[in-house]
Each structure stands twice: as C-alpha cells, then as structure tokens.
Specification:
alpha+beta, 2 helices
Amino acid sequence: MAVAVLAAVSPPRSQIVSPKPVSMYPAASPRRTSPHPRRGAVVFEAILWVPVFVGLLAALVEFGLILTGLQHVKAACRAGAKVAAELSVEDLSDSETATTRHIGQVQTAVNRSLSSAGFTAHQVMLEHNGHCVGAPRQLTVGSCSHCQAPAEVLPTATAVPGGMVRVTVCVPVREFTPDFLSTIGFSIADRTAKYSVVFPYENCR
C-alpha cells in the first residue's frame, strides 16, 4: 500500500514580503515649492549692499580727484617759487610799487600752472629774507579764510648765503571735486589744499 507524503515547500527568502506598517495619521500632502526660492533673499541683499558699493565708489572717485588736485597745487607752487627765486633785487625792494609787481609775477606763474587743470589759486603768499633786499617780509595776494602762513621760520642768511624765498599756495578743495560724501557726514566745503616750497634766492651774493 503506497502512502503519499506531502511535504510543505517554503518559498525562498527573496520572495518573502514583509507587511507594511499601518500609520494612524493621514498622509501629508506634498509641499509646494516656488520655482525661484531665493528671489526675495537676493533682492533684500541687493537693497542692503548697493548703497555700500555706491558709497565706496563715490569715496574712491572723490579721493582720487583730491590727490590729483594736490599734485597740481604742488606743481604750481614750485613754478611760483622758481619765479620768486629769480626776481631781481629791485623787485624785492621795500617800495609799494615793487611789492605789487613781484607778487603779481609770482601769482601769474602759479595761476598759469593751475589753469591747465581748470583751477585758480585763492591765495598766494611770498616770504623772503634776502639780506640784500632789506628786512624779511611776507606778502600776500588774494584771501582764503583757512590758509595761514607756515609756522616754520625761513633759514637765516648765515645758514643759507643770499637768503631764501618761500611761496605758499592755497586752493579750496571744492575746486577739485564735487562734495559727494557730504550726505554721510564727510564734507570738503571748508577744507583747503595748502602747499609751500622754499628755494634759495639767487640774486643776493
């Protein structure tokens, strides 16, 4: 008598599917995302940084123009001092006519140099202490409220034979550049560019 034995065949492990956990909460709907998620942040950052960059650019332009103007004042002052050093003894005498004549020559030389950049000297000072032209003098043409003579005394005739001449030129800084930075508290309205040059006087022996 034949007995049929049925053996239970278990499926392979790869085909065993674990049951999915059942959540007690409803599934959340998918989150909508903007196609340009950083547009608002970029606009806000631009609002903050654009004024800073504009201010830095204005400062660079203003200081660059001021430095250029100072170089022109320096060159004009040297031109005036060269003319003063070559003036005759009669031009540096104590008479009023000679005084007007020689300070006018120095001023003309200064303004000729400054005119190439479109500037004009508001005050020109000439000092000399040549022993052959009388007592040391200081002569001024023009006026500038923020321009004073240098505090240093000219070398004496014993230190420099023939004496010295010194020319001082004053030009308001507002002639060099617009007042870009006045809106942030840095104004050049009352600032003056001043430069002095000393040359030995050549006609006193």
